[in-house]
Design a protein that fits this description.
single chain; mainly alpha; two-stranded parallel sheet; 4 helices; 2 strands; 39% helix; 4% strand; globular; Aldolase_TIM; oxidoreductase activity; EC 1.8.-.-
Length: 98
């Protein structure tokens, strides 16, 4: 259902930022890629260091809680480039047309 909603939102609101969250990948090992292919355009890596990282385990089975920030970035970059997309190096603000 969430994937269908992402696709519909992308069609109706093409300038919106739609996240491919870690929750998607907790449910399916390719969840963030599926989300990106379905309309999502933002990934949110967990860049928290060390012991504090486990404090962000907001739901059971959350992925990446034991990964380092560097590993997380490398993993996401590999997934994004693997589907023919590029990881932006800027803030990603949307352009406002007037």
């Amino acid at each position: 259902m969430a994937i269908k909603v992402m696709a519909i939102v992308r069609l109706l609101l093409p300038d919106s930022n739609i996240p491919a969250t870690t929750a998607m990948e907790t449910l399916n090992s390719n969840g963030r890629i599926i989300a990106l292919k379905s309309g999502a355009n933002v990934v949110m890596p967990n860049v928290t260091e060390g012991d504090y990282r486990k404090l962000y385990e907001l739901y059971p089975g959350k992925i990446c809680v034991n990964d380092t920030p560097a590993h997380c970035r490398s993993c996401i970059t590999g997934k994004v480039t693997g589907i023919g997309r590029k990881v932006a190096q800027d803030y990603g603000f949307r352009k406002i047309q007037r």
